[in-house]
Amino acid sequence: MLETRKKVEADLKEYPMLKRKETILKYESQHPQHVTEHEVIGALALSHSVQEMAGSAGYISDKTMRIALQFQDETERLNRDASFEIAQELFNVRRKMKKLEFYVSQLPPKQAEVIRKHYFEEYSWPALQKELHVSSRTLINRRDEGLNELATMYQYMEQVTQSSKKTPEQNG
Q1: Which is higher by pLDDT, 114 or 57?
Q2: Burial of 66 (0-12, 13-18, 19+ CB in 10 A)
Q3: What is the spatial distance between Cα 71 and Cα 37, in angstroms, rounded to a whole number?
Q4: From 7-21, 76-90, 94-108, the region with the lowest mean pLDDT
Q5: What pLDDT does residue 58 have?
Q6: Domain of life here (predicted)?
């Protein structure tokens, strides 16, 4: 139970960082920093050898254009991959946050309030004491009871997922 409680507390302490990551990823997904295909083609099309430049002005060889088009395809693939990775990370971050929010919402209201304000909103103990008008001992008790409840939820889900991984013979 102690290890599970440490895991719960580590997850709760990670929540503010998850919130920041969500904001950054959301911004990056809405404002991607892509290299445009025109920039790539333009850069490659203008890169002539000295001989080509002496031969005929403005001439683009088939080889140069083929390289430019291949590079264009590669650039599109890289941009697509980057967007996909951002979207996938955003999904994972949101999933972790939703899980924590849901589990905390299952606690009794006073415990949930202390957990939310202390871990999610990063209230200090003195600020929390002042806002809730309770002693530090009461806050610690509510926090500890909430952490124990959350650890019980985590353990339950661990048991459920482990039993689903067993073969029919192991389940009995």
Answers
A1: 114
A2: exposed
A3: 8
A4: 76-90
A5: 57
A6: Bacteria
Q: Decide if pLDDT at 48 tops 80.
A: no
pTM of the entire predicted model: 0.72
Please state, for a pLDDT cut of 70, what percent of the chain lies above it.
80
How far apart CA 94 and CA 21 sit, in angstroms, is 9
Q: By the 8 A CB rule, do 76 and 37 touch?
A: yes
With beta carbons less than 8 A apart as the criterion, state whether 115 and 12 touch: yes
How far lies 131's CA from each of 32, 113, 125, 136, 143, in Å? 41, 11, 10, 12, 15
Cα 23 from Cα 26, distance rounded (Å): 5
Amino acid of residue 102:
F
pLDDT of 163 strictly over 90: no
Q: Return d(Cα 32, Cα 83) in angstroms, integer.
A: 7
What is the biggest distance separating any 2 CA atoms in the chain, rounded to whole angstroms?
A: 87
